[in-house]
Amino acid sequence: MSPFIVHTIPGSPAARAVLAALIEKNAAFRVAGLTPGAHKLEPHLSRHPFGKMPVLEQGGFTLYETQAILRHLERVLPSPSLTPRDPSEAARMDQIMGISDWYLFKGVNDVIGFHRVVGPRLFGLIPDEKAIAEAMPHAQVVFGELGRLLGDKAYLASDRPSLADLMVAPQMDFLAQTPEWTPLTRGRSNLVEWLGRMNERDCMRLTTWEAVAQLARSG
Ligand SMILES: N[C@@H](CCC(=O)N[C@@H](CS)C(=O)NCC(=O)O)C(=O)O
User: Fold this and answer.
1) Which of 25, 30, 119, 211 is in Cβ range 3.0-4.6 Å of 77 for a Cys bridge?
2) How does pLDDT run across 162-215, given as a tens digit for each residue?
3) Hey, how many other C-beta atoms are within 10 angstroms of the C-beta on 75?
């Protein structure tokens, strides 16, 4: 099997989910690094007409949309499985992947994560405190729901990591670097402990912003 290529700017939580899945599945891959802005230009627009990341490429097959990529990897690299066998737990995984895209990324990470982490680091921007404050009520709902769904389990959908954990952990690891993390996790220690468990796994340890930047440099 030819190696997987992941096109991304280092630091992208969505790309980190894909890289994490490749690591969990012991697959050979390389990172094709993009510089900020290059994702809105050719040749990247031919890979991803919406100018986003990540894009997965392998043996002439190109795919974008993180959920589609994760499910594709699950089919072509079935072992170890990252989908619970139990139908209710698998449904919970699917639900949390949807929550991740629609409520955690949109309105939380693309505001708080952007203004606190990406903007200052990549573009030298000053955080927009008003936008961050306005995002907090929605963020509290998202954290409340993720905390409730996690409950006292070790991982989000079951007692083993699933695609849902791989999608949510990179975004939470971003938010954990912000001052908003403390109010968002107050009374939700299960989420903090879960992120600690995820961050101990190779899939997270080997895909930090710095680690992905290094992978991109070594091509
Ligand atoms: N629905 C897309 C979202 C991808 C996305 O928004 N990625 C972010 C990085 S995590 C991005 O490309 N940001 C750059 C931009 O929007 O210009 C997916 O799941 O892959």
Assistant:
1) 25
2) 999 999 999 999 999 999 999 999 999 999 999 999 999 999 999 999 999 999
3) 8
The C-alpha angle with vertex 127 and arms to 216 and 66, in degrees rounded to 5, equals 40
On whether the pTM is more than 0.70, the answer is yes
Pocket test for ligand 1, best of 18, 45, 47, 53 (most atoms within 8 A of CB): 53
Contact in structure between 30 and 215 (CB atoms under 8 Å):
yes
How far is Cα 54 from Cα 15, in angstroms, rounded to an integer? 5
CA of 83 to the centre of ligand 1 (A): 23
Query: Quick one: which H or E segment has residue 181?
Result: helix 181-185
What SS3 string covers 65-77?
Answer: CHHHHHHHHHHHC
* Nearest protein CA to atom 15 of ligand 1, as residue: 52
DSSP string, 26-68: T--EEEEE--TTGGGSTTHHHH-TT--S-EEEETTEEEESHHH
Angle subtended at Cα 30 by Cα 174 and Cα 41, rounded to the nearest 5 degrees: 75
